[in-house]
Amino acid sequence: MIQLHTGPEASLDIGARNGIRIWRQFIHSPSAIVGIVFVLVTILAAVFGPMLVPNITTVINLNHTLMPPIFVHGSSLLHPLGTDYLGRDVLSLVLAGAQISVDIALLSVVCSLILGTVIGICSGYFGGTIDELLMRLTDVQMALPFILIALTFINVTGPGAWKVVVVLTLSGWTNYARIVRSQTLQRSSPKCDVNCLWHQGQSAATA
């Protein structure tokens, strides 16, 4: 006899099994380990790097302009990556720029996730005309090239960090919307899922 488990407990059980499976695949993948280590090092360098060199990015020393990196003859230990044409330390500039890049990336991902989640839930929950309109909007957004959206928006509004966040958000919400919509449709029609599982179980039992 085949027993079907439905309800929140079944969803949690399936989610737990999927999480364990993904974790096992992750820890046995060298490329995934290298990737996560690189991301963590980048984030830590961006967060704590400027604290170690708080004012070198603004110091101009015309006596030490265009110094080579440390692995080239004529370099200095004070400037591991050399200096620019104003004598500023390149490593400090890189760390300061990395902090801005990480802030923009995290903020744009969060905004894309929120926007995509709201659109996906509305599309999957209400269905009908609303679902059709939101999915056609998603298709149009996915068809537009990212560089076209970015150039148009920046040319109209001008440069700025928050404007980069807006561009990345407008171009990144579509994947989240589709995933959330599919999950919403599954949760909103449990009877169909149970019937499909029941018929599959009956077919397997009689085979």
What's the structural blueprint in terms of helices and strands?
Elements lengths: L7 H20 L2 H23 L37 H37 L1 H16 L2 H12 L3 H28 L1 H17 L1
Helix pairs in contact: 2-3, 3-4, 3-6, 4-6, 5-6
Explain the overall architecture:
With 207 residues, the protein is mainly α. The chain has two domains: 8-53 and 89-206, no CATH class; 54-88, no CATH class. Helices cover 74% and strands 0% of the residues. The chain has helices spanning 8-27, 30-52, 90-126, 128-143, 146-157, 161-188, 190-206. The longest helix is centred in the middle third of the chain and has 37 residues, at 90-126. It is elongated, with a radius of gyration of 26 Å. Residues 191-195 have low confidence and may be disordered.
Give, in order, the helices and strands. HHHHHHH
Total helix count?
Answer: 7
Number of domains: 2
Report the portion of residues in β strands: under 5%
What radius of gyration results from the CA coordinates?
Answer: 26 Å
Backbone structural class: mainly alpha
Quantity of strands, as a count: 0
The main pleated sheet reads as:
none
Taken from the alpha-carbon principal axes, the silhouette is elongated
- Mean pLDDT over the residues: 82
Helix content: over 70%
Query: Which spans of ≥5 residues are poorly predicted at pLDDT below 50?
Result: 191-195
N-to-C terminal Cα separation, in Å? 14 Å
